[in-house]
Specification:
about 750 residues, alpha+beta, Rossmann fold, 4-stranded antiparallel sheet, 40 strands
């Protein structure tokens, strides 16, 4: 700028520009340039907002909140923020939660090391958590950054008000998600968790590193402290049967509670520590046919903690609806002061019930249960109030494609009371130890998952300062709830994302979730994987696509009959007809070019993507398959009993045939549309071999495909840069194959 000013011709006969005038002109030009730059930025931002345009990085830039917990004896809560792959623990204190929110840990790298099993000591002064992923079968933790050093899942403690770094409690690699069940003693001095088939104990202050509690046969899991801290109840899993076991501090032997040939699990201590509640299901029966689905009856038992003698408290029926509920399982089993609270699907919906905790010696067994949440909806997240008198939970009551918070007395007798409502979504409620506040996680159609205080006059956000300044909330669209019929008449729900200003006919994309026991909602999701997928659907809509996210049969929150529909998965894949119906629904929209329909999804959604391309390339013109299942029969035939005639199911061959015919691989000869295959080769959910095998079959049939292989990544991608990479590749693939109709090479 100085050089430019000095070369300006001197006016009024000036031959030399005085320094004072030079400085004034310099400031003027700088101001003018700054003003022009600002106006251009505002104009550009206005144009982007008007068009709904934003970058993939922007829409994936928000912090994702999870692992919300409350201290039992204080007004403090804690949670984990994942900001662009950097995970950290935050806390907040009542009464001024928003102003008191602050970061506790200070990790700085997108390193693929998740934080799980967050816990607060009863006084709220220390947080405990597991850092890193669990081990897979080869006894290695995930390290998607491909470090040369060994990576372990380890347990750490961090004092909230200390600037010292987190202290290591156990240098242990945990398998089977064992480190994700950390339990803190009632006095807050000790922590126990399960790892390597044992229970491990460490002092919270770090002075006594983790050590094995006892040598016990089987796999020791689900540890629970007694109220006085002198005993630990746990499950000793012996494969085809399991026991409720008790470790006594100062004792010399493990005690077993009412051992039988059945499977006992989910131990819960009574508030006075005298009794133990647990669930009993049947032991394993060999050589049962594979194809028929059978109910899983179950019962609740109450045992004397000192003698181990137990009595049946409640017994389910024998119908399919009476099976042990999968939606909430052990997260909805509580021993309140005078009542047992549990979930059952006996009426076809996942509801809460209560049973007397003190039925008396002369009471008939099993006792009757009182329904707490009757109605045409399902209950999901469940917790007890601080005083144990109320059940606080999330459900889709009166708002089928969202979640809101409710409460109901433990003893029943009055209908549930709403705690939140409106065009928002709330989940994971906790109550502070003083009973004064309910805190939850929440989102909306255009705002990401954040912590909130639930209040009668609406929810209040915690840690708003953590939101990134360029997150494009104002540019996102509000998806429309759509309901349409499958080919066999089943009502299906979906969310339709449409561009703000579509120009002419636009291509359509179908999104299928994984699980399959999931539900996509009318807003940002409560699971990180689908929180990202929702953001991706917003991005695709901003790029000129009509996107339909479909809740096909097998999903949750529409009742057990919808979730457990017959002839599905490897038994016939009846859910695929829902995908065809969704594709045809997209074709029928006036904005959509019926000849340009694509589909994408991950895991089970990857399976359905592959099914669509293999069976209906006439309808689906391109697809992106994230770590999908392609051959169900492998999961049956590779079981050990298939090679053991003594254990082999009588319908083994028939089951393998049905499973093969329910798989995309069986229809590769009719696959014509191009596909992008994406998977991490350290996938612990779907074997990487499923994608390897499919690629060879596509090559043999000269099907055009591209591939994006992620060395050392797992199923639920751990690196933020991985999400940017795979979603960027997805958008590019659809732009080339649908918008531009470019041909993809079959010589891959």
């Amino acid at each position: 700028m100085n050089k430019i000013l000095r070369e300006i011709p001197a006016p009024f006969g000036w031959t030399i520009l005085p320094s004072r005038i030079f400085r004034s002109l310099h400031r003027y030009f700088c101001f003018a340039a700054s003003l022009l730059t600002f106006m251009l930025l505002v104009q550009s931002a206005s144009a982007r907002q008007a068009s709904g345009s934003f970058t993939l990085q922007q829409v994936l830039s928000s912090p994702f909140a999870s692992e919300l917990v409350a201290a039992k004896h204080s007004n403090r809560v804690a949670w984990v923020f994942d900001l662009r792959g950097v995970r950290n623990v935050w806390v907040a204190d009542a009464p001024d939660f928003p102003r008191g929110a602050r970061q506790v840990t200070h990790y700085t790298a997108d390193d693929g090391q998740p934080i799980a099993s967050l816990q607060l000591t009863p006084n709220g002064k220390t947080v405990l958590y597991a850092l890193g992923s669990e081990m897979h079968d080869a006894q290695q933790s995930a390290h998607p950054s491909s470090w040369v050093r060994e990576v372990k899942q380890q347990v750490y403690a961090q004092d909230v008000d200390s600037s010292a770094p987190p202290r290591l409690l156990g240098d242990l690699g945990c398998s089977e998600e064992g480190c994700e069940d950390i339990q803190i003693s009632p006095d807050g001095n000790w922590a126990v968790w399960s790892a390597k088939k044992k229970l491990w104990l460490a002092s919270v202050d770090g002075k006594e590193q983790a050590k094995s509690l006892a040598e016990v046969r089987g796999n020791s899991t689900q540890p629970k402290w007694s109220p006085d801290g002198k005993h630990i109840a746990f499950v000793s899993d012996r494969d085809d049967h399991s026991f409720i076991s008790i470790y006594d501090f100062g004792g010399d032997a493990i005690r077993y509670v009412a051992p039988t040939v059945d499977k006992d699990s989910m131990p819960r201590w009574s508030p006075d520590g005298r009794r133990i509640l647990f669930v009993r299901t049947q032991g394993t029966q060999r050589k049962l046919p594979l194809i028929p689905e059978r109910p899983e009856p179950w019962s609740l038992w109450l045992a004397d903690a000192s003698t181990g003698a137990a009595r049946k408290l409640w017994q389910s029926g024998e119908r399919m609806d009476d099976s042990l509920p999968e939606l909430t399982e052990d997260s909805s089993l509580y021993f309140a002061a005078d009542s047992i609270v549990f979930a059952s699907e006996q009426d076809g919906r996942n509801h809460l019930y209560s049973s007397p905790a003190n039925p008396g010696p002369d009471a008939k067994a099993p006792t009757q249960a009182t329904p707490l949440t009757p109605g045409d909806f399902d209950v999901e997240d469940v917790t007890l109030s601080a005083d144990g008198k109320w059940v606080i939970y999330s459900s889709n009551q009166n708002d089928i494609d969202r979640r809101h918070l409710w409460r109901v007395p433990v003893s029943g007798g009055s209908p549930p009371q709403p705690l939140t409502s409106g065009a928002t979504i709330e989940w994971a409620p906790v109550q502070t130890g003083d009973g004064a506040s309910i805190v939850c996680l929440g989102s909306s159609a255009t705002s990401p998952a954040m912590p909130f205080v639930a209040a009668a006059n609406g929810r209040q956000m915690l840690a708003a300062s953590a939101l990134t300044s360029d997150f494009p909330s104002a540019q996102l669209v509000t998806p429309q709830q759509v309901i349409f019929k499958s080919e066999d008449g089943l009502a299906l729900h979906g969310q339709l994302f449409l561009p703000r200003n579509p120009s002419g006919k636009i291509p359509g994309l179908l999104f299928m979730h994984g699980g399959p026991n999931r539900q996509m909602m009318l807003g940002f999701h409560y699971m990180a994987y689908y929180h990202n997928a929702y953001a991706m659907n917003q991005y695709l809509a901003s790029q000129g696509y009509a996107v339909l996210s479909v809740n096909y049969r097998l999903g949750i929150m529409y009742g057990r009959h919808f979730r457990e529909a017959p002839n599905t998965i490897w038994r016939g894949a009846a859910e695929y007809q829902d995908i065809v119906a969704a594709g045809k629904y997209l074709q029928s929209l006036p904005q959509v070019d019926a000849s340009k329909i694509g589909l994408w999804g991950g895991s089970y959604g990857g399976f359905l993507t592959a099914m669509g391309l293999a069976r209906n390339s006439d309808l689906f013109k391109a697809g992106v398959d994230f770590h999908g299942v392609h051959d169900w029969s492998v999961f049956l035939t590779e079981r050990p009993y298939f090679g053991n005639l003594a254990l082999r199911p009588p319908d083994a061959e028939a089951a393998a045939k049905v499973a093969w015919e329910s798989s995309p691989d069986a229809y590769v000869n009719t696959w014509r549309s191009p596909v992008l295959l994406i998977q991490g080769d350290d996938d612990r959910n779907v074997p990487f071999s499923q994608t390897v095998d499919l690629a060879q079959r596509l090559r043999a049939q000269h099907v055009p495909f591209e591939q994006l292989v992620l060395p050392d990544e797992i199923h639920d991608f751990l690196l933020w840069k991985t999400w940017i990479k795979v979603y960027g590749a997805t958008a590019d693939f659809f732009d080339r194959t649908l918008k531009k109709a470019e041909a993809i090479s079959a010589r891959n």
